[in-house]
Amino acid sequence: IYSGSAYPRLDIKLYEKVSDALPEVSFISFGSENRCRKVKNRHTIPWLDKRELFTLLENCDVGFMPYDVRNPHNLHCVPLKLFEYFNLGLPVVSTALLNIKEFKPHVEIAFNSTECVTAISKLLSLNQNPQAIEKRKEIAQRHSTQNMQDKLLDLLRCQDSE
Fold it and tell me: Helix 80-87 to helix 50-58 angle, to the nearest 10 degrees?
């Protein structure tokens, strides 16, 4: 699953090439239309509220982030959906975003469609390691809004006391 709108963030040619190479796998993303669409094994669904999104994500096997890294905005981002996936313990396959290297080995970084297909196939064929699932959940917790808010408040308190 890519828990966002495919346009304009994704490398659509890469997304199509990968999904075409794995016809037995369903690929899901969101669209602006108020109806579901299906092209081959690519499903585009309407936006969901947060509760519904997490229910959907709980039933997915791999987070897929095939961002178009030719766009500098994408290349330098840290997608919040990475932490949505990690919150549920999902493994992730992504194109080579600069700021997600620190999350290896919990993110499989792929540089082309062949590497994406290989990584997705590998993750789908494995029984997920319970320790890896827990580690991904810990990463999500460290990056949660609540945790970051507490860190920011601590920093502000330190500055006030100086």
Answer: 60
Closest CA to 90 of 108, 72, 75, 74: 108
Q: Look-up: residue for tokens 């827990």?
A: 134
Give strand ranges (E) for 4-71.
27-31, 37-39, 42-46, 63-65
Does the N-terminal peptide bond of residue 105 adopt cis geometry, omega within 30 degrees of 0? yes
Q: List pLDDT tens digits, range 19-76.
A: 999 999 999 999 988 999 999 999 999 999 989 999 999 999 999 999 999 999 999 9
Measured distance CA(141)–CA(151) in Å, rounded: 13
User: Which residue, 121, 54, 112, 61, is CA-closest to 81?
Assistant: 54
pLDDT in tens, 86-109: 999 999 999 999 999 999 999 999
In whole angstroms, give the CA distance from residue 128 to residue 101: 21
pTM: 0.88
Residue 64 token pair: 């897929």
